[in-house]
Design goal:
The protein is an alpha/beta fold. Helix content is 48%, strand content 14%.
């Protein structure tokens, strides 16, 4: 029985239109739209538009899909940086998308020719496609300048039934499973040799098998009561403010906290201020130190606050998180990955001629930190994440390996206003809670300050764009999820498996073509003998012509 799937290829013009629509649909699956099934639909539209393409057509289709998706997905960047950086970042990510699309198209062309059976087309090919998609996310998330890991497929699933899988396979592993599942369903739909009912049953079994993976059991040991303070101060880059305004906003947001604690007989274990919680460095400013002392002494709890710190000569500047108690800094974490073209300008001399006004806005370059991500906070260990650190898989793994029992995510979202960026970052924090089986305390200057339990549920928060404090007793996480141990290995395994299968298919096809050519070259050519005429009377040319006048015409 033939097992070949029905050949299906959209005309290039139609494929481009489908790809453009796919990007918009894909974005709708992410927060703040958050219709998570649309992420699967968007992936399906991208894959369908790539089937049967040549490399050039595939790159064009992928480029259009990438421009459409990232153009909408990170439009929040225009609020702070303007159109030029948004267009540049969107184009860069779209180029990666186009490159990944070429690899996927080649997989659709080559893999079924080497493994043409039913399993090759409905199992191996989807695995290769999922691996190549993950490879593209891996490259874009790490290069250039540390990469941009925003917009990975898994980040759309913080509120879906698939979210629990991140505890087993991590963020990249979930992206792989999503794309491979969609690719498998497409292959089943096009498998003409299999009855429709059988195809539907096989697809349903595949989906149920993925969803049937049980949630990772969370464990805890002890509790900690944490207050997170959202000052709602003038924390944006272009906000008008006087010296000390950010510090004052944080203090004023705590006005009702003493009464609340006293009435409910609550003792705090930690007070958390966000990234940019103070514009006065308490290690260099006497008034800043006085306020920090007053907070930590008054609440009998350490204060963890974001601050800009620098070396004595001013040459080294860090975006830091300071743990303040007993009159000084007890521990410090410096942001590992400052944002390129936001917190520092890489290769400034090269880029400045292209946009001098924009580059000159970033007057100082933050230095990447080298301190551990996990710090001791009295009776427990906290993993510290500053702003976009939360999207970096390796930093989260590092803090877990260093014994973090809770993740403190400090962020300043003031530059992004009421855009999707806040919701997207909060969704990442929720997935990190599930992935690590740790509660996450997400504290912002202006919006999305929330406490998230180890199952990814929001259990406390402050209303967006208002000043206030949230107080919650969290359960300190213990144990290690499979994702913490193996997520990086899974990411590399599926990515390079997809690439290896693609290369292997190409090598086999090239070898088969060479063998055919050698066989043809080695085969003896048959000797051609002149036709033998039967013995008869000579044949005159004019006898062969029906009209003798034609002979006369030719003869002339």
């Amino acid at each position: 029985m033939p097992t070949r799937a029905t050949d299906f290829r959209l005309p290039l013009g139609v494929a481009v239109l489908v790809a453009a629509a796919a990007g918009v649909v894909l974005d709708a699956g992410f927060p703040d739209g958050d219709v998570w099934p649309l992420a699967f639909v968007g992936v399906a539209l991208v894959l369908v538009s790539l089937r049967g393409r040549r490399a050039g057509g595939a790159f064009l289709v992928g480029l259009i899909a990438g421009l459409s998706f990232y153009g909408v997905h990170i439009f929040w960047a225009t609020l702070y940086l303007g159109l030029l950086p948004w267009a540049a970042l969107t184009t860069l990510e779209a180029l990666f998308f186009g490159g990944g699309a070429v690899l996927i198209t080649l997989a659709y062309r080559w893999v079924p020719r080497i493994w043409p059976g039913l399993l090759g087309r409905t199992v191996l090919l989807p695995v290769v496609v999922g691996g190549l998609w993950t490879l593209r996310e891996l490259v874009a998330g790490n290069w250039p300048y540390g990469g941009f890991a925003w917009g990975r497929m898994a980040l759309s699933q913080s509120q879906s039934p698939f979210a629990g899988l991140v505890a087993w396979v991590g963020i990249s592993g979930l992206s792989f499973l999503m794309v491979a599942l969609v690719a498998a369903l497409i292959q089943l739909a096009l498998q003409a040799s299999v009855r429709g009912g059988t195809r539907a049953l096989a697809g349903a079994i595949a989906v149920v098998a993925v969803l049937a993976v049980p949630a990772w059991p969370t464990t805890s040991s002890g509790t900690a009561t944490i207050a997170g303070v959202q000052g709602n101060g003038p924390a944006g880059y272009f906000d008008q403010r006087e010296r000390g305004d950010l510090l004052s906003s944080q203090v004023e947001a705590m006005t009702g906290l003493p009464t609340y604690l006293r009435e409910n007989d609550i003792d705090l274990d930690l007070v958390v201020w966000p990234e940019g919680g103070t514009d006065l460095d308490p290690t260099r400013d006497a008034y800043g130190a006085y306020v920090f002392d007053a907070i930590s002494d008054g609440y009998d709890a350490p204060l963890l606050s974001g601050a800009i710190t620098q070396s004595d000569d001013g040459e080294v500047v860090h975006n830091s998180s300071l743990l303040w108690a007993d009159g000084g800094v007890q521990a410090q974490y410096d942001k590992k990955h400052p944002i390129p073209f936001g917190e520092y300008v890489p290769d400034r001399a090269f880029w400045r001629p292209f946009a001098p006004d924009l580059i000159d806005l970033i007057a100082r370059d933050y230095t990447p930190g080298t301190r551990p991500e996990a710090i001791d906070v009295g009776d427990f260990v906290a993993g510290i994440s500053i702003c976009f650190d939360i999207v970096d898989d390796q930093l989260v793994t590092n803090m877990m390996r260093d014994g973090a029992q809770v993740i403190i995510a400090q962020t300043n979202n003031a530059d992004f206003g009421d855009t999707d960026e806040n919701a997207q970052q909060l969704a990442i924090a929720r997935l990190r809670a599930i992935e690590t089986a740790r509660p996450v305390v997400n504290v912002s200057t202006v919006a999305s300050s929330r406490v998230i339990d180890a199952d990814g549920r929001i259990v406390a928060g402050v209303r967006d764009f208002t000043a206030g404090t949230m107080v919650h007793t969290i359960e300190l996480g213990t144990g290690t999820t499979p994702a913490v141990v193996d997520s990086r290995a899974i990411e590399l395994l599926v990515s390079f498996f997809g690439l290896a299968m693609l290369v292997m298919a190409r090598v086999f096809l090239g070898g088969a073509r060479s063998r055919r050519r050698r066989r043809l070259d080695a085969a003896p050519w048959p000797e051609l003998q002149p036709p033998r005429l039967a013995a008869s009377a000579p044949v005159r040319l004019e006898d062969e012509l029906h009209d003798p006048r034609q002979f006369d015409a030719v003869g002339r």
